[in-house]
Amino acid sequence: MNLSPNYVKQKFHIDWTLTIIMAALFTVSMVSIYLAMPLVSNVRGLIEKQVLWYITGFMIVGFLIYLGTNNLYQITPILYWILMGALVLLFLDRFINVPFVSEINGARAWFLFPGIGSFQPSEFMKIVLILMSADIVSEHNKAKVEDSYAEDISLFLKIFKIAIPPLVLIVLQPDTGIPLVIVISIMVMVFVSGIQRSWIYISMGTFIAVFAIFLYIYFNHQQFLLNLFDSNSLRLSRFFGWLEPEKYMRSWGNQLYEGLLALGSGGIDGHPLRQVLVLFAEPQNDFIFAVIGQNFGFIGTSFVVILSCLFDLKVLSIAFNSTDQRNKLMAIGMLGMIVFQQVENMGMITGLLPITGITLPFISYGGSSLWSYMIPLSIIFKMASDNIQKNGTFFV
Questions:
Q1: Which residues, in sequence order, are CB contacts of 257 under 8 Å at separation 6+?
Q2: If you placed Cys at 337, which of 145, 185, 204, 273 could pair as Cys (CB 3.0 to 4.6 Å)?
Q3: Residue 395 falls within a domain, yes or no?
Q4: For the chain, what is the domain count?
């Protein structure tokens, strides 16, 4: 493995449009976390930590650009096995006492290092899987001699081989949100890879059918669901709280109910800043969109939606103009991940989707999540630089 940096081979050009959008997301994150702090008990220095994570995150971007995208793809298998080892340790903590592992909210998903902070391996695993899947799809397309179902199945098996083991370990933590992000991002990447279009129809049809059957059983045969699953299942209780939040406002639906009160009470322009009108869990993480709605109302939430869309469209534009197929696939996978998290986070707070614990990218508080985004973002910046080199404009 030759990991010689390739920064000298081509001058790097900053895409100022993407940089300005990232600066705006950083500002929204800082303001939102500041406004969430009155709702958070026994937590200090949130803004300082988020600033530090953003600064170190962009240092990661700079280092990875210096290292070169080819070298980054080369080291992802090593990172994969390191993260697999970490996920195994988290699983083993159920049976033996693993150092630095603690159960938080019923899940074993973090390593807690005193004086340093927490580390969530699954956040980085989702990025590693996107990079490895992009590499697999790219190499598969170069080698295949025909478009056929057999070739598609061969591609699926290659991806399943690397994706299933970490998915199982993450689900067992238990965690629903990140496995969903991983599956959606890989599916989006595979859908645009050139597979037979019927696979897309089958996948979408299966999802719609399963969801429709679940809703039918929920509203007509709830006892069957309770018998089929553990009645204390966190995942099942979230569906109950989502579908009937007012009925379960004192239990399973409390977080959604309080979030809706905070979001809806903001009106057009919100309440005076930092007023504690409604208490709800995780205002700095999962429910930061409700904090924005309470303080800035419809105007503030609309601004966040528009800013998120601008980021998505910018990444899509960079991918569309790139000539590197592997990086283009990676960018599409990242975009699928980001868009799904944006839709799910905003959707679960407005009651349109069930609560899954998915954060709002680049805005919610958290180091592991933010750092993980910076890995594919370094490739996006490099792709943008190549596009600028080709097109001769800094605002694309």
A1: 245, 246, 249
A2: 185
A3: no
A4: 1
Question: What pLDDT score does 234 carry?
Answer: 61
3-state secondary structure string across the chain: CCCCCCHHHCCCCCCHHHHHHHHHHHHHHHHHHHHHHHHCCCCCCHHHHHHHHHHHHHHHHHHHHHHCHHHHHHHHHHHHHHHHHHHHHHHHCCCCCCCCECCECCECCCEEECCCEEECHHHHHHHHHHHHHHHHHHHHHHHCCCCCHHHHHHHHHHHHHHHHHHHHHHHCCCCCHHHHHHHHHHHHHHHCCCCCHHHHHHHHHHHHHHHHHHHHHHHHCHHHHHHHCCCCCHHHHHHHHHHCCCCCCCCCCHHHHHHHHHHHHCCCCCCCCCCCCCCCCCCCCCCHHHHHHHHHHHHHHHHHHHHHHHHHHHHHHHHHHCCCHHHHHHHHHHHHHHHHHHHHHHHHHCCCCCCCCCCCCCCCCCHHHHHHHHHHHHHHHHHHHHHHHHHCCCCC
Residue 132 confidence (pLDDT) = 95
Residue 367 has pLDDT above 60, yes or no: yes
Determine the structural domain holding residue 235 and report its residue range: 10-195+229-388
Q: How many CA atoms lie within 13 A of 213 on its CB side?
A: 8
| 248 or 372, which is more confident | 372
- Report yes or no on 107 lying in a domain: yes
Q: Considering the domain boundaries, does residue 329 fall inside one?
A: yes
Q: Residue 385: pLDDT above 80? A: yes
Does the CA dihedral 299-300-303-305 come out positive or negative? negative
**What is the average per-residue pLDDT within 36-60?**
83
Check pLDDT > 60 for residue 189: yes
Poorest-pLDDT segment among 50-64, 110-124, 191-205, 306-320: 110-124
